[in-house]
Amino acid sequence: MRTYLDCIPCFVDQALRAGRIATDDEKKLKGILDEVGMMLRDIPLENTPPETGMLIYDKVRKITGVFDPYKKLKRESTEKALALYPSLKSKVEQSNDKLLTAIRIAIAGNVIDFGPNKSFDIEEEIDDVLTKDFAIFDYDEFKDYFGNTNEILYLGDNAGETVFDRILIEELKKPVTYVVRAVPVINDATCEDALQAGINEVATVISSGTSAPGTILKTCNAEFKAAYNKSNFIISKGQGNYEGLSNENRPIFFLLKVKCHVIAQDVGVNVGDIVLKGMNV
Fold it and tell me: In sequence order, what E strands does the chain have?
């Protein structure tokens, strides 16, 4: 997905929000806005939003001196999600379609996103996503591809959301490789966050090698590219991964809650909609 003009004020807002989490030094915060403003002048609209995000959060790290501004928030999000884990498992076990319920729960976890989201109620979100209709519902295609694969490549998104992904991985009952970011960016999950959620108990955890808040193939490492190129069943969580991979010619199933009107327009749905979208399937 390319960058739209409406992405630009969002980039600035995210930079200031991350900066304020890292420091209350107004000179440093002004420096972030100055640097990001000058950088955005030269960003081509053909770039995907995560490519720009990678540069913005690198500026935040360098100017504030804080490597992982969202570290505390990520840990707290995962702790809250782990407290919900028993009830989430119970919802799956009691449902008529366990796989679909696990997919819905995984999508509900996508609301834990401090990029576009400033606040959210995760328990309210779970109740909503478990009952609302999908705007795009390629579930039959999902089941067909799932039935014909021996292993799954699962592209993770945010810390805390990882616990919800774990519910789905446990229901898939096939070998899963779970992909996280190499470097902290926003509240995207790194290896440390995946381990806190217990993902390593149900999947093989690897890093994509990128510091972008999404999967940008040209910035990824050889291990991830090899897994990506050989996979015939890819689950991609969240908006950042959609932004980075929506033009790729691979069989990918995008699972996300749409939280941004730009992405809503690109996908062809409304803000707040839930999506199970198969691409090249």
Answer: 136-137, 152-155, 176-180, 204-207, 234-237, 252-257, 274-279
